[in-house]
Amino acid sequence: MGRPSDARKRLIEAATEVIFAQSYTGVSVDTLCATAGVTKSSFYHFFSSKQELVLATIESHALWFEQHVLIPSFLTNISPQERILRFFCLVLEMQQAQKMISGHMRGCPAGNLTLEMSTQDEVIRERIERLFQEWLQYFELALRAAQEQGSVPATLDIATTAQTLLAYFEGVMLLAKGRNDPTVIRTLYTGALALMHYQGPDL
Amino acid sequence: MGRPSDARKRLIEAATEVIFAQSYTGVSVDTLCATAGVTKSSFYHFFSSKQELVLATIESHALWFEQHVLIPSFLTNISPQERILRFFCLVLEMQQAQKMISGHMRGCPAGNLTLEMSTQDEVIRERIERLFQEWLQYFELALRAAQEQGSVPATLDIATTAQTLLAYFEGVMLLAKGRNDPTVIRTLYTGALALMHYQGPDL
């Protein structure tokens, strides 16, 4: 057992390791404690429930993802189209690294938790929905830049098109995870460029 | 308790009801038996495990989905573009009906099981992967028809574009489930038309 003051951090690392690799429902507080090397009383000192731990884990992962994927992809001087493709490429690299270690592609933790928990836990559903809203702002930024540069139609509905891009990203991750093959991301990612010319729902 | 000969059917209905509404891991054999109104010995007469039941449930749902969604969408004389939109619309209607009854949008059972189980159960992962391959054939059929009619580029990579469409469908379902709002499908579904002009991964 490590120092008690590390326990919170180690529980979040354990949750990242086992819940993000497996599922939320399937992982018990006992398993999380064993993985983190902390006692159950220590768990309940820091978190009132598994739900509270997973919320802290989403928080922690969101910060990591912003620093390592969103900012390096979107806050750059490359073209808006290249920013979106870089986003997919950085995720591809992460998924390949995870598969190399565990044999499995884990997919997007936010997407995984959404499909597993949305009908069962409103607090988790709303937390991830808020995360998706943050990601959408990065896509909107790229789309606005593309509009300013004239590389997408001036009439493009930015907010809706950003949603098509996020939907496409999550769907590509789902197909890739279903095949346990991160290279699916490489095969499909330029579909995002086609969506940048989305014409809106009213035909 | 109903007639024993109905037990298999009722277990599949129970699995459709609770596993598709909640999750695979979170639902026990006891819950499935209680929902179906069958004894545990009756369960094990028909199925060796929860896994075997969920495989039979996927089989049963796949047949239903083919008859009620895929065939009415894709095996018609409307334009290929309209076939794809009808596919999204029929799913939207189903999701709205489910939300009306339970308060929750369930999303796509195949997508849900993929993200929950792909790292944990190879048999379930491969069964759903096979299901996705069957759906892809319907998308390919529509794309080939569009190519014959000249409404998509003659150089379109049919197999890859079909995958972009399936990915987009699953991603739209994920976003809609995350918001518990089936109308997201209506807002985003014409993104599929933009993907029909996908230009391939090599830029």
Q: Spell out the CATH superfamily of the largest domain in chain A.
A: Tetracycline Repressor, domain 2
The CATH class of the largest domain in chain A is identified as: Mainly Alpha
- Can you name the CATH architecture of the largest domain in chain A? Orthogonal Bundle
Instruction: Give the largest chain-chain interface (CB within 8 Å).
Output: A-B, 56 and 56 residues
Q: What does it look like?
A:
Two copies of one chain form a homodimer. By secondary structure, chain A is mainly α. The first copy, chain A, folds into two domains: 1-47, Homeodomain-like (Arc Repressor Mutant, subunit A, Orthogonal Bundle), CATH 1.10.10; 54-195, Tetracycline Repressor, domain 2 (Orthogonal Bundle), CATH 1.10.357. Helix content of chain A is 71%, strand content 0%. In chain A, helix 1 crosses helix 4 (50-74) and helix 4 packs parallel to helix 7. The mean pLDDT of chain A is 94.
Task: Outline the fold blueprint.
The structure is a homodimer of 203-residue chains.
Chain A: H1 7-18, H2 29-36, H3 40-46, H4 50-74, H5 80-102, H6 109-117, H7 122-149, H8 158-179, H9 183-188, H10 191-195
Helix pairs in contact in A: 1-2, 1-4, 4-5, 4-7, 5-7, 6-7, 7-8
Short account of what is shown:
Chain A is mainly alpha-helical and 203 residues long. Chain A is built from ten helices and no strands.
Task: Considering the chains and any ligands shown, give keywords for the structure.
203 residues; mainly alpha; Arc Repressor Mutant, subunit A; Tetracycline Repressor, domain 2; 71% helix
